[in-house]
Amino acid sequence: MSLPRQLQRAQLIERYLTEHPIRKLQLGAGQNVLPGWLNTDLRPAEPAICFLDATVRFPFADEVFDYVLSEHQFEHISFEQGRFMLHECRRVLRPGGRIRIATPSLEVLAGLVTEQPTEIQRRYVEFISAGYLPPDTPPGVAGVLNNAFRNWGHQFLYDRPTLVGALAEAGFVEPVFTEPGQSEHEHLRGVEGHGDFLSDQEINRFETMVVEARRG
Q1: H/E run at residue 101
Q2: Is this model's pTM higher than 0.90 or not?
Q3: CB of 98 within 8 A of CB of 213?
Q4: SS (H, E, C) the chain
Q5: At what angle do helices 79-92 and 160-170 cross, to 10 degrees?
Q6: Residue 59 and residue 205: Cα distance in Å, rounded?
Q7: pLDDT for 99-144, tens place per residue?
Q8: Angstrom distance (rounded) from CA 115 to CA 126
Q9: What is the DSSP letter of 121?
Q10: In whole angstroms, what is the distance from residue 96 CA to residue 106 CA?
């Protein structure tokens, strides 16, 4: 990272930490710039988004944030990189701080392989087939599943036990699964933007697994 970019990032971080007594870190913001959050991304889409590579040590001291959010970002790094990221999240969270991860559900995707699909399963396959498959990829379940694993830069998709295990190994406790947009905690409620990106909230709720956990 160039020196001007380093200085810009340092200024963004210092200003945010100074101005916000309740500190909230978003990893992989994309276009979902959240007010009151330090929005970060590997490829910032605008100057207000801070550059951050979640696979290396975060540029923060220990115990400075109250909340961390990762929405449709965690699947873009390998399992080992994900383990490192979770350890970093725990390090920068204050005692009792909370993490929220929204990521594609491997269990939901695997469930598409069935001889008797439900209405939402059929709709999901049709939705992805019509709008999100690369050229020369056959429509239908096989194309949709290969797209989920091989495209978008996806590296590792999680089921619930694997995600809970990774959180526990990093020092998080009390995992709770919920729906996109829903949370018992005010600052984690209504924070997801993937449904807007898809222009279909039902499809997002179907494919997305959301978990919250507390720093132990």
Answers
A1: strand 93-104
A2: yes
A3: yes
A4: CCHHHHHHHHHHHHHHHHHCCCCEEEECCCCCCCCCCEEEECCCCCCCCEECCCCCCCCCCCCCEEEEEEECCHHHCCHHHHHHHHHHHHHHEEEEEEEEEEEEEHHHHHCCCCCCCCHHHHHHHHHHHHHCCCCCCCCCHHHHHHHHHHCCCCCCCECHHHHHHHHHHHCEEEEEEECCCCCCCHHHCCCCCHHHHHCCHHHHHHHEEEEEEEEC
A5: 50
A6: 32
A7: 999 999 999 999 999 999 999 999 999 999 999 999 999 999 999 9
A8: 16
A9: H
A10: 29
Place of tokens 């720093």: 215
pLDDT at residue 3, as a whole number: 58
Look at the block and give the residue holding tokens 């997002």: 204
112 φ/ψ angles, rounded to the nearest 5 degrees: -70, -20
Query: What amino acid is encoded at 172 in this protein?
Result: F
Integer Cα distance of 42 and 138 in angstroms: 31
Amino acid at 52: L
Both tokens of residue 127? 């939705």
CA distance 16 to 49: 11
